[in-house]
Amino acid sequence: MKIERLLKKLTEAYGPSGEEELVSSVVEDMTSARADRVFKDKLGNLFVEKDGPAPKIMVAAHMDEIGVIITHLDEQGFLRLAPVGGISPYRLVGQRLRFKNGNRGVVFHEKVKEWKELDWSKLYLDIGQKDNKSAQEIIRIGDMACLDQPFLTLSGGRFVAKAMDNRSGCAILIEAITQLPDNLPQAVCFVFSVQEELGLRGAKTAAYRCEPDYGLAVDVTGVGDTPQAPLSNISLGKGPVIKVKDRSVMCHPLIKQFMQETAEKNEIPYQLGVVERGGTDAGAIHTSREGVPSGVLSIPCRYVHSPSEMIDSVDLRHSTDLLVKLLTAKWPAPEGQVCHEK
């Protein structure tokens, strides 16, 4: 499947944190034929494994997206909501939301004198019903909704969609799985994780089960190439980002060096990233069990956690190329624990 069509299918799927089943089904359909094993754990993480000798590499991309959860239905049929993941109330005003059952609504706010007064308590969702009874026939407290935005291809070769964080990472893993040869120099456990937006929850349990020697998260990262952006060297169109540090992980120098050398050897452009905010599944993987040396391959993304997240098709292609080259190269043997006895 062409990467553009794949990305459209993934980003337009419903899948807020805790309700990733529809995304998981799409991924499983596209990867099972190329895997030695495909299974889910009790939390909902999807494992796609390819056999090989030691060491074992865990490659993770989260399936979930930011969303909202319904907390109250008033007598007029308006719904109150709370965030699921890191989403700002300012970015929701006037936006359309979609529920799992297909129902839709529009977010707006109570009257405020100043924009700074806007918070979650002032937001409501209008699903077009005339009263509480009719609203309860289609929506209940605890139901979740995601942003309702179509996938767009811009004339400059850039893609815009909701849930680019992190369906673009999922697309890269799917593409890599389809391109990898049957025989690999090491075992690879691909994990399409759940509930990353709620605190890296799925990656934590997945890493415990996988017991990898090395970890690699594939996710988006913010950029510094927009007007008055925070200080950052990261730009769209200049290649994937090899993470150095973010709020959740200090990437292992061995992995970072291996990623850089692989990119340079194969003439794949890349950027180095130091990010003060945010994190990825690597934050949970690297602290699993006795510790897992981990790195992050990031896709530059504008307007993260908004209805219109933007990536560059060139970055997507180079990110896929780099991941394939990394997994077909022989990783170094993991360092063992040395015990000095008196």
Blueprint of the fold:
Blueprint: H1 3-11, H2 21-31, E1 37-40, E2 46-50, E3 56-62, E4 67-73, E5 78-84, E6 96-99, E7 104-109, E8 123-126, H3 132-136, E9 144-147, E10 152-153, E11 158-161, H4 164-179, E12 187-193, H5 201-210, E13 214-221, E14 241-245, H6 253-265, E15 271-274, H7 282-285, E16 294-300, E17 309-312, H8 313-328
Parallel strand pairs: 3-12, 3-13, 13-16, 14-15
Antiparallel strand pairs: 1-2, 2-12, 4-5, 4-9, 5-8, 6-7, 6-9, 7-8, 10-11, 11-17, 14-16
Summarize the structure.
The chain has 342 residues and is of the alpha+beta class.
**What spatial order of strands do you see in the largest sheet?**
1-2-12-3-13-16-14-15
Summarize the helix and strand pattern as letters: HHEEEEEEEEHEEEHEHEEHEHEEH
Structural class: alpha+beta
Tell me the CATH superfamily of the largest domain.
Zn peptidases
Distance between the first and last residues' Cα: 60 Å
Helix content: 10-25%
Biggest sheet descriptor = 8 strands, mixed
Tally of separate helices: 8
Number of strands: 17
Radius of gyration: 21 Å
Report the CATH architecture of the largest domain: 3-Layer(aba) Sandwich
**Oligomer description:** single chain
Rounded average pLDDT:
95
Report the sheet-strand fraction: 25-35%
- Total domain count: 2
| CATH class category of the largest domain | Alpha Beta
CATH topology of the largest domain: Aminopeptidase
Outline type: globular
